Amino acid sequence: MSDQSASLNGTAVGQGRLALRPEALTWAVLLLLLVLPFLLGGSWIFTLGVCFANAIGVLSVSVLVRYGGEVSIGHSFFAAVGAYSVAVLDTRYGLSLIASLPLALALGVVAGVAFAWPSRRLSGIYLAVSTMALALAVPEMINNMDGLTGGYEGLYVSQPVIPGVKMGLQRYYGALIVLALVVYGLSRLRRSRQGLVLLLAKAHPAAADAFGTRRVWARIAVMGISGGIAALCGAMLGFAGSTVSPSGFTLWSAIFLLVGSVVSFYGLTLPRALIGGAFLTLVPQMLSASGAWIPVLYGLALLGVILFGHYLPRLRALARRKGGA
Amino acid sequence: MMDRTTKALTGQGIALSFGGIEVLKGLDVQFRAGEITGLIGPNGAGKTSLFNCLTGAYTPQKGSIRYDGQPLDGLPPAARASRGIVRSFQHVALSPDLTVLENVMIGVARNHHAGWLHAFLPTGRGRREMAGMRAAAMAALSELGLAQAAEKLPAQLPPGMLRLVEIARAIVGKPDVLLLDEPAAGLNNAETRDLMRSLRRLASPDLVMVVVEHDMDLVMSICDRIYVLNFGAFVAVGSPAEVRADEEVVRIYLGSDDE
Q1: Tens of pLDDT along B109-156?
Q2: Can you tell me whether residue B36 is helix, strand or coil?
Q3: Per-position b or e across A105-120, b if 16+ CB within 10 A of its CB
Q4: How far apart are CA A23 and CA A14, in angstroms?
Q5: Which domains does chain B have, with CATH numbers?
Q6: Is A89 domain-assigned?
Q7: What is the mean pLDDT of residues B86-102?
Q8: Which of A21, A259, B165, B232 is least surrounded by Cβ atoms within 10 Å, i.e. has the fewest?
Q9: Measured in Å, how far apart are chain A's first and last C-alpha atoms?
Q10: Does residue A306 have a pLDDT over 80?
């Protein structure tokens, strides 16, 4: 699916009839998710909380693609920054998510900017491989700082945000609220001055330069935003999943975030992010009984979703033609 | 004779070469405010390279560039844009993800400074900033007769209209120096006539306007002064009548009526 059609179906403004439908869908999905805990059992609530957190991670990669024109296979690094911010403050200082989430966001932004500055001249495959270096380093870094991070065993996130309310519900709604806020923030960004100039800098860096936006600033800004959102993903993975350990932030985790972004067609809307998050969380769970066939079936599911998304506009056009005939 | 108070974009001894090939050979130029200056010459003469030097996209090996007496040497393109020096591009450089209106709004973005908080949250300042940018962009589109295309995506417009959108983006920020690279390329006769009228209306005592163009009807009818460039050197400078009468210019570029 082209970027343009993605924008038509996503967060484009001023597209008249086309723009209203995704917004209505977003509200419908949000309302459904708000009442879902009253309809489903505990294990599903837990799984959906993790799915929402993964959807935030998918958004972090999609932002990089949509606004920076780059891909990352190292966003597990930024997610780990967020996750351990929450987990360390929880276990060492008894602070809840209310206090640790802003810190996670700030550290994620700082980490994104710190990575973007030395790599500001890299693009394409070179940038992707340099992000991979981050992902490869994460588990070892966590294990070597075991005094703080708990090493292989990890840390348990247990502080409630609202004392007295069931932790299962807090984990579910906490992740959903943060996901909704990230989607809302990104929809605002698309309509902001910064969003406009970032999109021009992606398509025509020289034109952005000529109108007062330095391409280096654009790269650093996008990486900072993306790193911050990835840190929120990590923070919510820790909170919704209740544990934080090195096995959750490997190179594979980073690759799956990219896979989630691809199957959501880099969409920045709630439904698209949920498709990516569900692919990371629900599909492996549904395939868990398939034994050795899991990788094959996962690959087939991945191929099926991508092909379906690719041909969906043609199928819609065909259906319209038949409906009109 | 230029009034001493007239602003001008000047270049002295601008020399640019790529791998031993001299693209610009020590050019002296003076583009004055209040005039429309034409820059013509055959393909490969160095016109766009001179634009790139003036806007900071290229760094000339020799020479200096000043605007209103202030040196611009060493300033990156974004900093020159902040000083009011903007350009359009030979090849359309619009974002395909943005509507026409949003693409034009970018032209005025450098005049606004609301921070990141206003980008992510629905603040009053952010809303006012975007409303101001939208109004300015709409006015620029209306000036060029493009108001009806404001909500379309670039992919939905013909090349000629995209060229006009580029010009709207360049003029919306009220620049001090406007460099237009082949603004009439891809326009039909009626669109070119409309463009000529718009450029004449844009001309003001405070605006330096330079037009690179192959459409000689446009150049000869709207320009006050014309520089003719060939192989990186000026072969003629003067009024349209003087340039048209120059035998060298006729030989290398314009051609005679008999041909």
Answers
A1: 988 889 999 999 999 999 999 999 999 999 999 988 899 999 999 999
A2: strand
A3: bebbbebbbebbeebb
A4: 13
A5: 1-84+175-259 (3.40.50.300), 93-174 (3.40.50.300)
A6: yes
A7: 94
A8: A21
A9: 26
A10: yes
As a dihedral over the C-alpha atoms of residue A217, residue A223, residue A229, residue A231, rounded to 10 degrees, the angle is -120
CB contact under 8 A, A213 and B126: no
**pTM as predicted:** 0.88
Whether the complex's predicted ipTM is more than 0.90 is answered with no
* Residues of chain A positioned with their CB less than 8 A from the CB of B169: 211
Q: Report the length, in residues, of chain B.
A: 259
CB contact under 8 A, B116 and A194: yes
The residue among B182, B174, B137, A207 whose CA lies nearest residue B149 is: B137
Which of the two residues, A16 and A113, has the higher pLDDT score?
Answer: A113
A206 domain-assigned: yes
CA distance B53 to A249: 48
| B135 at interface of A, judged by CB pairs closer than 8 A | no
Angle at B233 between CA B228 and CA B235, to 5 degrees: 45
- Are residues B237 and B228 in contact, defined by beta-carbon separation less than 8 angstroms? yes
CB contact under 8 A, B106 and A197: yes
Residue A252 touches chain B, beta carbons under 8 Å: no
Which residues have a Cβ under 8 Å from the Cβ of A84 and sit 6 or more positions away?
Answer: A142, A148, A149, A155, A234, A238, A244
pLDDT of residue A20: 53
Per the domain annotation, does A210 fall within a domain?
A: yes
Q: Does A199 touch chain B (CB under 8 A)?
A: yes
pLDDT digits (tens, 9 = 90+) for B166-209: 999 999 999 999 999 999 988 888 888 988 988 998 899 999 99
For the residues A193-214, what does the mean pLDDT come to?
94
Residues 184-243, chain B: which have Cβ within 8 Å of A? none
User: Domain residues for A217?
Assistant: 3-286
Closest residue in chain A to residue B129, using alpha carbons only:
A193
Is A292 contained in some domain? Answer: no
Count of domains observed in chain A: 1
Q: How far apart (Å, rounded) are the C-alpha atoms in residues B110 and A48?
A: 43
Rounded to whole angstroms, the Cα distance separating A23 from A66 reads: 19
- Confidence bin at A310 (pLDDT 50/70/90): confident
Q: What is the length of chain A?
A: 325
A133 and A251 Cβ atoms separated by less than 8 Å = no
Residue A189 and residue B89: Cβ atoms within 8 Å? no
Residue A18 has pLDDT above 60, yes or no: no
User: Is the CB of B106 inside 8 Å of chain A's CB atoms?
Assistant: yes
What pLDDT digit, counting tens, does each position of A223-255 carry? 999 999 999 999 999 999 999 999 999 999 999
Indicate the pLDDT class of residue A6, thresholds 50, 70 and 90. Answer: very low
Instruction: Rounding to the nearest 10 degrees, give the CA dihedral for residues B96, A258, A84, A189.
Output: 10
Cα B177 to Cα B202: distance, rounded to the nearest angstrom: 12
